Structures are given as C-alpha cells and as structure tokens.
Amino acid sequence: MTLQARTFQARIASHPALDATAELLSRAERCLWAEVAKGRKPGDCKSEFLKRFGITARQFNALMVNVKGKTESLREISKTRLRDLDGRIKATMRTIKKLETRMPTNPEKRQKAKFTLHQKKRRHALLRDRKTAIRAERKRAAPSLCFGSAKLFNAQHHLEANGFADHEAWLEAWRADRASQFFCLGSKDETSGNQTCTASVDEDGTIALRLRLPDVIWRELGTPKHLAIGLIRFGYGHEVIVAAIKAHADGRGEALSWRFVKDAKGWRVFVSTFQPLDDTAIDFANGCLAVDMNAGFLAVAFVDAAGNLKGRLTVPMLIQHRRTDQVEATIGDAVARIVAVAKKHGVPVAIEDLDFEAKKTRLREECSPGMARMLSAFVHKAFRAMLERRAARDGVAVVAVNPAYTSLQGRVRFMDRYGLSVHHAAALTIGRRAMNYSERLPASLSVPVGDISAAARRDVSRVALARPDRIGRRHVRDAWAKVDGSWRAALRGLRSASRLKTAGPSGVRAAQVVPTPDRSLGDDAAFLQETASSLRAHDGAIPSPESPAKLFGGRGCAITISDDQLCAAC
Q1: How far apart, in whole angstroms, are the C-alpha atoms of residue 437 and residue 308?
Q2: What domains does the chain contain, in order, with CATH numbers?
Q3: pTM value > 0.85
Q4: I need a surface site. Which of 58, 416, 499, 524 has the fewest CB within 10 A?
C-alpha cells in the first residue's frame, strides 16, 4: 500500500474576510521569512507572532511549513543550477581548448577564430561568476526570494510596456499579488483532517467548509469566528475528496490541507490529500505496452508474452512553442491514452530510463541550433512522472529499462522484418528488453536506411555492417557498442557522399552501402500481414495465435487507432 499526494481545485464565492485573511497571513509569512534570514529558527518566533499578528497556533504552523518548504525548494533549485553551470563550464572550456589548438592559418579565418575565442573566454568567466554567486547564497540562512515575483517587481521600471498607467497602478497590483493566497495546514489527527478549515459533506453531495479566521480579522469585521463556505463541488476528483472526508468518521482518514488562492476571476480553493493505492505487481503474462518517446509524438508497440509484435500506436504529443499549461495538458492527454490501452489489456507499460539533464547543459557548445531546440523541448522527465502517477492510480505497472542502443537494435533486427518505422522498432526493443528477451546480434547486419534523407538522396536503402565477435562472457551490449560505432561511421560516410575505406572500431570492418530498388521502410502507415500466424518467430519466440485485430481493433499487426476507437474499446 502506497500513499499518493493528489490536489484538486474548485471555485468559491468571494468574501471580504478572505481578502483580509490573505493580506494578514501573507504579511506574517514575509516577516517570518525576514526573521529566518537573520538567523532565527521559525519555531522560536511562534509566541511573538501569535501576539503580534493575532493568529492561532495552527495558522502559524502553516506559515512555518510554507517558509520551510520554500527554503528547501530554493536550495534544491540551487543544487540543480550548480550542476547545470558545471556542465556549461566544462563544455565551454572544451570549446576554448579546441579553438586554441586548431587556430586557422588563413588571416581572415584566424581573425574570426580569435574573436570567437575571446567571446568564449568571456562566457567562461561569466559562468564562473554565476557559480560563485550561487555558492555564496547557499551559505545564507535563507535564500533570496521576491514575494510577488521578480517579473512583476521589475515591471515598475517599464510601466507602459507592462500595461500600467502609472506607478500607483503598479503598486496596487504588486500589493494584491503579494496578498493573493494563504494556506491551512492539515493533520490526520484533527477533525476532517484540518482544524483551521473543517470540511463536511451535505446530503446532496456538496462540500461545506468552516474556515477559522484570525482573531484580529473577525473582531475587526464583526463577523463570527468561523466563516461558512458552502456548495462546493469539485469538477474533477470530487468523489476522492468526499471519500477522504468521510474516512475520518471511521478513524482512518488522512490529512486534508487547503490553500485559498485569488486570481482575476475570484477565489479558488485547492485541497491536497494522500490517496492510498495498492501496490501493482509487474506481470508480463499478457505482454507489455512499450513506449519510445520522440520529438512531437510517442511510438507505442504492443508486445505479446512471447516477445512478438502484436500492434502499434502513434500518439501525437506536440509541445514545442507551447505554454507550460498547454504542455502539461498535451502530456496528460498522451499519458491518458497509453494508460487506458494498457489497463484494457492488463499489461504493464515499458519506457526508457532516460536522463537528458547533463546533455542539456552542453547544448550551446556541442549541438546544432535545430538539435538544441529539439532536446530543450524534450520533456521525458515530466512525461515519466505523469505516467507513473496516472498508472499507479489505474493499477498499471510501469517498467523503466536501460535505453542503450534501443533505436539501433530496432533498426537492425525489427524494422525490416515487421515493416515498421525506426521509432516503433525501438519501442519493440524496449518491450522485449523489459521482458528480458534475447538481444543477441543477428547473423547478418544488413541495416535499412531508406528513412534517412542522406541515403535517400543517393538512392541507398541498406547498409551492410560487419558482425563483431562476442568476447568471452561479456554482455551482448558490448558487441552492440561496436556495431554502434560502425553504424555512426556509416552515417558519416553517407553524409559525406563517400564510402568509408578505413577501419572502424576494433574488430569491425568498414561499412558497405548497398544500393537497392526504390523501397522505403520509414512510413508509419505500413501494415503487416492480416494474420498473426504468418509472422515469423525470432530468437526463440513463439508466435501468438491471437489475432492482432483483437488487440487494438485494427486491420493488422502494425496499426494506428483513432481516439474514437480507443474510447469505444475502453
């Protein structure tokens, strides 16, 4: 049994007491942050703040949790920034050394290279200064933080460009933004999971809140000590919150923490709770759903228990040039489709265990502008986190495998055999690796390259690579590493319009390009034979008698299903 934190939101009616409470608690939080920055511990300020601001002990505890959370978050961000700067500094230093050792002799090119070298040295110094500043800030009791956002603070210097008539208009927006929310800390030992904001369920299923106001607020406004907020219905997750509230009547409830936030439309309330989830066992009895993430789409392959391809699915996931909320919505839609198919067939989801953080730090120095844009927009970390959370709620297991040479193996072993794109062939490799199937090299390394533009321009559809010998008891991926070196050399040969004549890595002969008649295997719309019995078993796998049409509802093994078909099936 695991507990998953979940947060839901709903609109509530405005009330002057909410505005006054937000202004008071926000001011108290900023003062507490200032005390922590002076070196005091938050707990030592409790008695002083209860008298100074007229708040309850639980309201102060919520402020303390907010301050601690922001401090820890900023310190973790500074760690990430230091790692990022270390990668940038090393990449810039490598570029500087390369420029110094490869200085051109041509006067014009030499002058240009000197200018580039000078700018790289300036950037290197700038990055080192940033690193020094972050290290100095980490030694402080509290990191630097601008309440109200630095963006809005800097807007006062460009009033007209940011839509403000004068400084008074900006100051009003600044104060409103700094007093736009407050937090009510929950505990599973308290009534309905929260002493400050107590929730109850009415007979019609709506939720009513009873908010404890600070003493100074209800006395100034002449209102009761508790503010009643009723008729709340969450558009999403209402049943989860109702179940969490009712669970406290049985003495088994979890904490419910409420956050009130004011925006341009009014007040919203966010509630966070821990939902118990059963642990999901990994079972490949029905196969698995393997996912290969690419720029703009997900290539999904359905692999049966014998390791054979049963179907494929292409899920669009366009995220470049989109806002953060649009990216999150796009990823959520793609994750929902994948989990729905996996849940329908009772199979786990297999993905690659990727980490692009180190690679992204070297984009400026080592990648072309196009490649840098593509990698910077690669959101595998967010996709994996969302997939794991959604799969856990729906009882679907997620398996992350080593991503080494999945695309190369898919191209060599499965792309031609099944008539797949290289992306779906890579997904098939991911699924087979998750189920611990063989990854041994085929007898002949004749690699299809019809989907590569450099090969298509030269009317080349296949590349023949030498098969390296496996040495002793070493893992088969050591042999794949040699094939990868030969493959990269072949790609360079295709791009330079000449065959490689020098030897490749140890034990690997030069690659040979083989011209063949017009044929391209890079089309994602290709279909296989109508029946699974015609599919050839490979590496000892046993063909499944089940028709591929029963899996995704399509006409053959390599199929694409629409959203309507998916919804109807699930």
Answers
A1: 10
A2: 288-442+521-569 (3.30.420.40), 452-519 (no CATH)
A3: no
A4: 499
